[in-house]
Protein: Phosphogluconate dehydratase
Amino acid sequence: MTELNPVLKAVTERIIARSKATRAEYMARVDRYRLREPRRKKLSCANYAHIAAPMTENDKLALALDKVPNIGVVTSYNDMLSAHAPYYRYPEKILDYARHAGATSQVAGGVPAMCDGVTQGRPGMELSLFSRDVIAMGTAIALTHDAFDAALCLGICDKIVPGLVMGSLAFGHLPVIFVPSGPMSSGLPNPEKAKVRTAYAKGEVGRDALLAAEMASYHAEGTCTFYGTANSNQMLMEMMGLHVPGAAFVPPRGDLRDALTRAAVERAAKASALSEDPIGMADVIDERAIVNGVVGLLATGGSTNHALHLPAMARAAGILLTPEDFNDLSKVVPLLARVYPNGSADVNHFHAAGGIGFVIRELLSAGLLHEDVNTIWGKGLSAYGQEPTLKDGKLIWQDSPVRSLDENILRPVSNPFSPEGGLRELTGNLGVAVTKVSAVKPEHQYVEGPCAVFDDQDDFLAAFKAGNLPEGDFICVVRFQGPKANGMPELHSLTPSLSAMLDQGRKVALVSDGRMSGASGKVTAAIHLTPEAVDGGPISKLRSGDIVRVDCENGALNFLGDAAELLARDPAPRPPEADGLGRELFAPFRRLVGEAVTGGSVFW
Structure:
């Protein structure tokens, strides 16, 4: 076995030490609920009758047997999300597969699944981050019937997978497998889409051209093909051992996808508490699995949203993950993939070039992943260095390509795109922020200049259209966008305008207590700034014209001037809380939510 990289080892050890008390508390709770008999035996006859009432007579008979596991399904199906539309038939398929595996299955419950692509730049985006915690609670409601011996989670997109993970970890005594549906076929190349968006922001093309480009990009069932949060989720589920190996990027329809779903059901039955070798979710998600997830994110240039989601998922398992951990791992984890917005390829091209299996095998060979972990598939991460295929109608796994089939997309550890990963921590007299530099040219990773301060992204866009922004290099500050202010909506709609200014030869950067999309790209963005403006953080005291420096190379974010004078200023008044479109219902969440650096969750 390859020796672990010393930084990986040291970061893992300090996470273990930091999390000793909270992890012990979590595992004690899990252990209280472990059983080696069917969960339903704990129910009263009336409770049991309610569970069995809608089943067929054969399934009722099977359920009465003490050694037949009952698999609970938590689904996030809706037919507005392209990635989730294929789940329409999954419960029916899963029930059939379960019967053939000597098990039963039931849809335990559904969780909401909003589409960030629809709500970008709209009021509904203010509910997006909070939807993750609602999904976690919905998952808990579904599984709290306590009638299941294993669970399957049907979810792919942005906040849905993190929410399902957080909710499932409350049932860490159960084996839980995540079942994806795969990416849509490639449409309009992502760089072409980006060009049209920038041209529209400049007023060079009309809405008809923009709509045509967007419709050609998002055109079928499956995940959007850029490497945003949804596809980063799928990478994480492989890296953390919660998928059937190689399931992430197989297309939605076809025999191979059906075979992988069947394999998930069969494995759930075999891994249940009734089996000879049970494996609960708590046994899979430990400190090593969390570190593997961070490494995968860095090596593939994944979504900045996971600087929020990974700490929240980790905390659900009693594990404390910090921005410093991301930063230190980033220094030793090479960037092996360039997938849009970090390159021109989409996830289908990435998968064809060797995909996650290639990445995992390369990182294992360099001692940059923990191999000796539990996964839902069994012991060890090496199985995830293989890829599934059908041979004579039978599902088998074979080694992923030894060499990348396209080094413009995917590279080995010996020849990375960059010796460092894409996420960095920025610290200074403005607070703590994160930035993603994997798609940012080196000359744009250092920006110093006067700031233009806005309390709303729409105010910036109006100033851009009116030409009322500083000439030359400048820093765009958008504040009151943190979790406590308005739920921390993504500021993705700023990207085309800021990109247009980069194309003019200017240096610009964004500084915000908000977040960017998983599709954030070539503009330097210091985001998730903590403390946020609502808490009176330094960002609330900045004024237009103040000089700010964003230095990604040295991990610094600073107001250049008299820091004591800055802190002595009165904070800007908080804008009125917006309501309508359901936002008023989330006022309690805004009061309870934690800081971005701890995951922006209402639970901790």
